[in-house]
Structure formats: structure tokens, C-alpha cells
Amino acid sequence: MSGKPRAASGAAATPASSALSQIRQRRERTLTMIVREAIAGMIARSEIRAGDRINESELASRLEVSRGPVREACRSLEEAGLLVSVVNQGVFVREMSPDDARQLYEVRGALSGLIGRLAAQRISAGQVAALRDAVDRMGQAAQAGDVAAYYPLNLEFHQQLLQAADNRLLADMYLTTVNQTHLFRQRGLVQPGSLAVSNQEHQQIVDALALGDAVLSERLLTAHVAGGWERLARTVAAP
Predict the structure, then answer these.
(1) How does pLDDT run across 153-200, given as a tens digit for each residue?
(2) Number of domains in the chain
(3) Which helix (H) or strand (E) holds 91?
(4) What are the counts of helices (DSSP H) followed by strands (DSSP E) for the chain?
(5) Alpha carbon distance 97, 99 (integer Å)
(6) Parent domain of 43
(7) 92 beta partners
(8) Rounded Cα distance, 30 and 46, in Å
């Protein structure tokens, strides 16, 4: 008697169903990462500030996603130190003490120095040109005293340095640290003259990288982060 064999009850998933399951999981992970980056960006731009309560429904509506990816993204950001969960109250953007900030800047300074040293050894002419362009654009924002325009360009500049260093493990460590500094980092740029000083340091860093001077690049980037902390510390100490 001929005929198609029937699938046994409780049989293992077929290759097709297994593949579909993997695709769904990949889509969910990708969407969660997109939402995570969007929320982190809101924090970096101070659209969501330290101490603010996270409203999952509002964020889901704003990002046009369900609450699931928002919830998963918030869990990831909590692990990264950007958010904190308070029992019976909800999830909040983390508030940092001056001592928390100092420790973060100390670690960031050490990592940035290593980025400078590696970038000087590996940077291409095209990457140097892109950094010079970023410095020019930051110069225009600094001249206008436009912190809102300067800050994302500053982030772009340091991201380009990270790419030039070409070390994935270092990039992961650096981003974990620097993402937490978004909670307060812009405050150090609002001091009179801070934008111009910061960008002059950027110019010196690019000049050292163009020369391939690893020792000088490391020293300048370490000093640049230390200068950022000094500017920020003045805002923390201000009444």
C-alpha cells in the first residue's frame, strides 16, 4: 500500500522549522539591539537624563515596536551600567556620584591611551583624512558655541580612533566604559572655552597619528581624557 509517510507524534523539529525558529530568534536579537542603541542614543543626547524613570510603553510607541524588545534592551542596558532597577518602582537612568565619574574617567584614560598607541601603528591615510574632517566640523561647532552639534561629532571622532586601533576586545572594553560617561559627559563641555580647548587637543592627536608617533599619540589621548575629567570636575564642584 503506497502513500506518504506520516510524521510521528512528538517527532523532532524538521530542518525547515528549525531554520525558521533560528531566523525568528535572530530577528528578535537584531530588533533588541536596534532598540538598545536607540535608548542609549537618547541617554547620550540627554533626551533621557540621569534619574529619569524609563517608561516602556512610551518608548515602545516612540520606536514603533512592541514592549518586548524594549524590556530586553533595558535589561541589557542595566547590565551595561546605564540603567538601574529599583524594586517596586521601576527602571531608572543611573545617577552617578562624582567618585563614580572619577573612576570611569581613570579607566577611560588608560584605554584611550592604548587606542592612541595602536591607532598610530595601524592608521591609514584615509582614516587620517576622515579625522581631520571631523576636527574641522567640530571647529565650526566650537566657534558657534554649539554643544548640541559638537557632542555627536566628538563621539564620531573617538569612534573613528577606535576603528583605526583595530582591536575588537579593546573596543568592547572601551565602549562599555564610555557609554556610562554619557550620563554626565556633556556637562564638561559647557564650561566657557571648553569646546575650543577640547578640539585643539583633537588636532594635536591627529597630527601625532599622521606622524605614526605611537608614544606621543598615547600620551596625548591619555591627557585629553584627563582634561575632560578636570572640566567635568569643575561642574561637579560648582555650587
Answers:
(1) 998 999 999 999 999 999 999 988 888 877 765 554 555 578 999 999
(2) 2
(3) strand 90-93
(4) 9, 2
(5) 5
(6) 17-93
(7) 53, 84
(8) 24
CA–centroid distance for 66 within its chain: 24
pTM, two decimals, is 0.70
Dump pLDDT digits (tens) for 32-84: 889 988 888 788 777 888 889 999 999 999 999 999 999 999 998 888 788 88
The secondary structure of the chain in percent helix, strand, coil, rounded to multiples of 5, reads: 75, 5, 25
Using the CB atoms, write b or e for 182-216: b if 16+ within 10 Å. bbbbbbbbebeebbebbbebbebbbbbbbeebbeb
Radius of gyration of the chain (CA): 23
Q: What is the residue-averaged pLDDT of the chain? A: 84
**Contact of 52 with 183, CB cutoff 8 Å:** no
8 found inside a domain: no
Of 76, 77, 71, 69, the C-alpha closest to 93 is: 77
CATH code of the domain covering residue 104: 1.20.120.530
Looking at 69, 93, 117, the residue that finishes a domain is 93
